[in-house]
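Cross-check.
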Amino acid sequence: PTNIICYFIELMSVFRSLNNFYTLAAVLAGLNSSTVKSLEVWKTLPESSKSEHMRMNKLLMPVDKEFAEY
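Predicted model, tokenized:
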């Protein structure tokens, strides 16, 4: 399961580089769903994957109903 979560985090970086924010947001929503977030695998992720996930969360965090970072 760790490899799968890491794969989707890497995939979000690809979508970011392509400026494909809608697909990036869809993948992020899936990773942030309560079912996925409750998995124990999040504790075993490499720090690089955790920081990239946090960076994507920050990127798409709505501020005044707009995407803050893009």
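The beta strands are 62-63, 66-67. The two ends are 31 Å apart (CA to CA). Passed to J.P. for a second look.
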